[in-house]
């Protein structure tokens, strides 16, 4: 499946830290560690080799031992400070603490390692200092998907087909057989990514909309088209068609979510059209981008975004006033 820019950047940063702690590692071992090909590892190293700090003279660049590279062995000789442990500021730690809040509610479902969650929360709380108290003041809502999680996980583990009774955003109940691919957590909801035999296509199903899930004896068979990555939810004929006008810095959105079409704008921005099954999802996307979204249509979606923004501001006012 195609790799996103964000995924490669994450691996590049992790590669620096890994080689900083493990000098003289064979390329094959690095490839196995990161679950990529040896060719990809070498491509990553070649990219890092021309990366560095402003000035970009030889001493400003990340460097590796060239003689060992020729023998398919990797040794990082100049990390340019990129191998230092991450040091979070109070506001960064606070943002991560708030992001962990939904996981606390999900740990009882068996999908979250309680020890890891507690350890991570303790470290972030220490980094946030006095600001950590504000994380508890943020009201976090998590949809109830507990009833569907167990059969979905069972089907994924056993490689079996699922029969779903599902209610759409338009309150239409359907029954369908699906071949599950993976569970996806978007920060507030669980989705099942699966090949739907009813529509003969790849879909995401919100687990809190699954009325019933039955593991079938039939083995799951994944169509070749199912190997592509997508984040689109289960689509219905009555889904809304949204149009966003993005500033140049927000063009990456077209790579992260499936769009119907897009248009490049003269100033480097982009106009994208996408189908929306859940207006709340679009509101979260737009609020996350802030001023980088210059226009939202149709009016009903723009109104939903404005309402959610007003509610968020009111909640922050309540926190700052101590109520």
TrEMBL record:
Signal peptide: none annotated. Residues 242-313 form the WCX domain. Residues 148-215 form the WYL domain. PROSITE patterns: WYL. The keyword rRNA processing does not apply. Pfam families: HTH_PafC, WCX, WYL. One of its GO terms (cellular component) is proteasome complex. Residues 7-126 form the PafC HTH domain. The keyword Magnesium does not apply. Keywords: Proteasome. This is Proteasome accessory factor C.
């Amino acid at each position: 499946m195609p790799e996103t820019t964000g995924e490669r950047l994450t691996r590049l940063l992790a590669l620096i830290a890994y080689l900083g702690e493990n000098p003289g590692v064979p390329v094959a071992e690095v490839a196995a560690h990161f679950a990529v090909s040896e060719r990809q590892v070498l491509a990553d190293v070649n990219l890092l080799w021309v990366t560095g700090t402003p000035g970009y003279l030889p001493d400003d660049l990340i460097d590796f031992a060239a003689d060992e590279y020729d023998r398919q062995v990797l040794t990082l000789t100049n990390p340019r400070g990129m191998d230092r442990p991450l040091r979070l500021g109070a506001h960064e730690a606070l943002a991560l603490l708030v992001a962990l809040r939904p996981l606390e509610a999900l740990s009882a479902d068996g999908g979250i390692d309680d020890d890891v969650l507690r350890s991570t929360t303790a470290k972030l709380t220490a980094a946030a200092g006095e600001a950590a108290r504000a994380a508890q003041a943020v009201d976090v809502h998590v949809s109830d998907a507990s009833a569907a999680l167990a059969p979905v996980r069972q089907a994924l583990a056993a490689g079996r087909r699922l029969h779903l009774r599902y209610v759409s955003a338009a309150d239409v109940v359907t029954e369908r057989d699906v071949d599950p691919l993976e569970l996806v957590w978007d920060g507030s909801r669980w989705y099942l990514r699966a090949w739907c035999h009813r529509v003969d296509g790849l879909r995401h199903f919100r687990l809190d909309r699954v009325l019933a899930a039955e593991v079938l004896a039939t083995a799951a068979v994944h169509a070749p088209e199912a190997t592509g990555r997508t984040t689109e939810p289960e689509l219905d004929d009555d889904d809304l068609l949204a149009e966003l006008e993005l500033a140049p810095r927000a063009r990456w959105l077209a790579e992260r979510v499936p769009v119907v079409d897009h248009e490049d704008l003269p100033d480097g921005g982009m106009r994208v059209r996408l189908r929306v099954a859940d207006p709340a999802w679009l509101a979260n996307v737009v609020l996350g981008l802030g001023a980088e979204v210059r226009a939202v249509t149709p009016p009903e979606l723009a109104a939903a975004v404005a309402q959610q923004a007003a509610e968020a501001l009111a909640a922050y006012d309540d926190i700052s006033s101590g109520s």
